[in-house]
């Protein structure tokens, strides 16, 4: 059962919407290598607003994900792609159906 989750909101810089979408699509193979990250969704909330929603069995798996390749890439490309720093919310899962 997933007990922890993340909601990451990303606002693309003007003109970088396609690059943000490509970045999120390129993250999937990296996340597929993380056994503790299930499920993982890259989403689009609006024309320039994107997000990542993912869940984990425990805080350790969430921390591993945050310090993993996708988290590092987010930090490295934030100035290039995003109008503001990624807004990362750490959540407790109350119930789920996976």
List the helices and strands and how they pair.
Layout: E1 4-11, H1 17-32, E2 40-44, E3 49-56, H2 59-66, H3 69-81, E4 87-92
Antiparallel strand pairs: 1-3, 1-4, 2-3
Keywords: Monooxygenase, Oxidoreductase
Protein name: Antibiotic biosynthesis monooxygenase
InterPro entries: Dimeric_a/b-barrel
CATH level 1 class label = Alpha Beta
**Low-pLDDT segments:** none
Give the strand tally: 4
| Sequence of secondary-structure elements | EHEEHHE
Beta-sheet strand percentage? 25-35%
Number of H- or I-type helical stretches: 3
The total number of structural domains is: 1
User: What is the first-to-last residue Cα distance?
Assistant: 8 Å
Structural class from helices and strands? alpha+beta
Protein name: Antibiotic biosynthesis monooxygenase
Keywords: Monooxygenase, Oxidoreductase
InterPro entries: Dimeric_a/b-barrel (IPR011008)
GO molecular function, one term: monooxygenase activity
Question: How does this structure look, described?
Answer:
One of its GO terms (molecular function) is monooxygenase activity. Keywords: Monooxygenase, Oxidoreductase. InterPro entries: Dimeric_a/b-barrel (IPR011008). The chain is of the alpha+beta class and about 100 residues long. The chain has a single domain (about 5-90), classed as Alpha-Beta Plaits (2-Layer Sandwich). It has 3 helices and 4 strands; from the N terminus they run E-H-E-E-H-H-E. Strands 2-3-1-4 form a 4-stranded antiparallel β-sheet. Strand 2 (about 40-45) and strand 3 (about 50-55) form a beta hairpin. It is globular, with a radius of gyration of 13 Å. The N and C termini lie close together (about 10 Å).
